[in-house]
Every structure is written in structure tokens, then in C-alpha cells.
């Protein structure tokens, strides 16, 4: 029954493998990467790989990994404006609900604007652009929500590629225009948060997670807002309602505690861990000093 179900899911989601192969034939090394994805996860994996690779090829012909400094430098040169250090930057706030991400992001935006620097706050919780129709198909045919996707071997293997495209589309629509204009973007949730989501849902796979990390611009600074689950629950008392809405059967404190542990495990050496049990003003001062130093050095 499980194999038949996975086969049904796979056939429902597969699309355009011949087009992928045809496009890959004429792209040299890039084509080999596309074909590698095709062989790794089937027709859908190859198709999904085409979009971010093509986007990267068209926007950045070298197809190498670009840091935020590279991105801002290129866009500012196109616009004929000054050096990177006087323009845009990407500041990321990650952490569990109730850890103070939005509060500190909004304060930092106000700080930049008070100094005459154009800045904006972007709330970047995952939005299912590409994956939404497939989620609808899975719900109608199997009654599955995202919390159920780990039950399918096919979905465990390919779901990260859907999220990769979703995040690239989100970046292109909601973040890139601000960076192109030289703004400082304080983003509430980013790659680290998506890594935690994949782990929590039982859908984490190394390859798509690595692509998400490498194909999205690297933030100038990433803050992990760290706080005990009990404190976070007191600050934000609607976690239980959110779990009910998502049909997740979990105690709110246990949910927050599990996610906090995942954040600590997924954070890398560049992540600045901030203890947000301190007063808001003290937390802001530490973040402000770190960000201004990075911004002026940029």
C-alpha cells in the first residue's frame, strides 16, 4: 500500500523530464548539474533544479556562489551609485516564536532610518508559491497536510526542492528589489528557520538544504534570538492556537522546546546567538552595535 501510495504521489508530481533533458544538453557544466538532479530525485527534481540554476545563470553568468556584498555591489554598480558600505545590507533574525525577532527587527529599522539610512522590515515566513498546487492535490487526494508529508518516501526526497523554488521566488519578489535600491533589509526568518522547519517536519535532506543555503544570498549578520520555551510561551500566548490551526498535535511548551534545540543544532559558526531574556533595550544595544560595525565595514 505504501509503495502504491508513493507511486501515485510521484506520478502526480512529475512534470516535464524531457524538457529538462533537452535544456540540459545545451548547457555544458550547468546541464550536467541539472541532469544530476534529475537522476537523483527523478523528473521533478530535475525540473525544480532548472529554475534556480537558470535564474542564477541569467543574473550572475559566473554561476558561483554570491555573498550579499557581491549582490549589493553588482546591483549598485548597475544603478550607478556608491560603494557597498554606503548601501544595502541583509540582516537576519531567527528563533522560536516569542523570542523577540519582530521587536528587534523593527527597532533596528527605526535606528537606521533615524540615521538617515533607508531600511525596511520583511516578515519572511514560508509562503507556498510553487508548492501550493501540489499541497492542494495531496490534501484532496489523500487528506494530507504538511505534517503528514514525512509518511511518503517520495515527498521526503523532493520536498526540499519545492521549498528552494518557493524561497527564490519570495526573495526575487520581496527582498531583491529592496537590496537593488540600496536599502537595509531586516528579515524576520530566513534560511536557518527553514532548516529547522524541515527537521521538525521530518523532511530534511542534505542536498536541497545545502542548495537553499548556497543559492540564497548570505546575510551580512544572522542573529539567533535564543530564549527558554517557557519565557517565549509567556510572551506569545497564541502558540496553542497556531498548532491547532496547523493540525499539529503537540504541547505548546514541548513544541517550542523542540524547536529551540533544533535552532541551536542548525546554527553555524557565523550565527550570533543573542540571549533575549535580557531587557529589550539591552538586547537592542547589543544587536545595534554588532550591526553597525558590520554595516560600516561592508
From TrEMBL:
Annotated CDD domains: TMPK (cd01672)
GO cellular component terms listed in the entry, alphabetical order: cytoplasm
Name by which UniProt lists this protein: dTMP kinase
Sequence intervals crossing the membrane: 7-28, 34-55, 158-176
PANTHER family: THYMIDYLATE KINASE, UMP-CMP KINASE 2, MITOCHONDRIAL
Gene3D superfamilies: P-loop containing nucleotide triphosphate hydrolases
Domain Thymidylate kinase-like: 94-287
One of the GO BP terms on file: dTTP biosynthetic process
Keywords recorded for this protein, A-Z: ATP-binding, Membrane, Nucleotide-binding, Transmembrane, Transmembrane helix
InterPro entries per UniProt: P-loop_NTPase, Thymidylate_kin-like_dom
Family membership noted in the UniProt record: Belongs to the thymidylate kinase family.
Keyword Membrane (UniProt): yes
SUPFAM superfamilies in alphabetical order: P-loop containing nucleoside triphosphate hydrolases
GO molecular function: ATP binding; dTMP kinase activity
Amino acid at each position: 500500500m505504501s509503495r502504491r501510495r508513493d507511486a501515485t504521489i510521484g506520478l502526480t508530481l512529475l512534470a516535464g523530464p524531457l524538457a529538462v533533458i533537452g535544456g540540459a544538453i545545451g548547457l555544458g557544466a550547468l546541464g550536467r548539474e541539472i541532469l544530476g538532479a534529475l537522476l537523483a530525485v527523478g523528473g521533478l527534481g530535475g525540473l525544480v533544479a532548472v529554475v534556480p540554476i537558470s535564474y542564477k545563470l541569467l543574473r550572475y553568468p559566473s554561476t558561483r556562489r554570491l555573498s550579499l556584498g557581491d549582490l549589493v555591489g553588482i546591483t549598485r554598480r548597475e544603478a550607478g551609485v556608491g560603494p557597498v558600505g554606503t548601501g544595502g545590507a541583509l540582516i537576519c533574525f531567527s528563533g522560536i516564536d516569542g523570542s523577540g525577532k519582530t521587536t528587534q527587527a523593527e527597532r533596528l529599522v527605526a535606528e537606521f532610518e533615524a540615521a538617515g539610512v533607508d531600511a525596511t522590515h520583511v516578515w519572511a515566513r514560508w509562503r507556498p508559491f510553487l508548492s501550493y498546487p501540489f499541497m492542494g492535490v495531496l490534501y484532496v487526494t489523500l487528506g494530507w497536510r504538511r505534517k503528514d508529508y514525512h509518511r511518503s518516501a517520495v515527498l521526503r526526497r523532493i520536498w526540499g526542492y519545492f521549498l528552494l523554488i518557493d524561497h527564490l521566488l519570495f526573495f526575487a519578489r520581496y527582498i531583491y528589489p529592496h537590496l537593488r535600491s540600496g536599502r537595509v533589509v531586516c528579515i524576520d526568518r530566513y534560511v536557518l528557520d527553514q532548516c529547522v522547519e524541515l527537521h521538525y517536519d521530518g523532511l530534511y535532506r542534505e542536498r536541497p538544504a545545502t542548495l537553499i543555503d548556497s543559492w540564497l544570498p548570505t546575510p551580512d549578520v544572522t542573529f539567533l534570538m535564543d530564549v527558554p520555551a517557557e519565557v517565549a510561551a509567556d510572551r506569545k500566548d497564541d502558540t496553542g492556537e497556531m498548532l491547532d490551526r496547523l493540525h499539529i498535535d503537540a504541547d505548546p511548551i514541548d513544541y517550542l522546546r523542540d524547536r529551540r534545540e533544533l535552532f541551536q543544532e542548525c546554527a553555524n559558526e557565523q550565527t550570533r546567538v543573542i540571549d533575549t531574556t535580557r531587557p529589550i533595550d539591552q538586547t537592542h544595544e547589543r544587536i545595534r552595535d554588532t550591526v553597525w560595525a558590520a554595516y560600516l565595514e561592508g
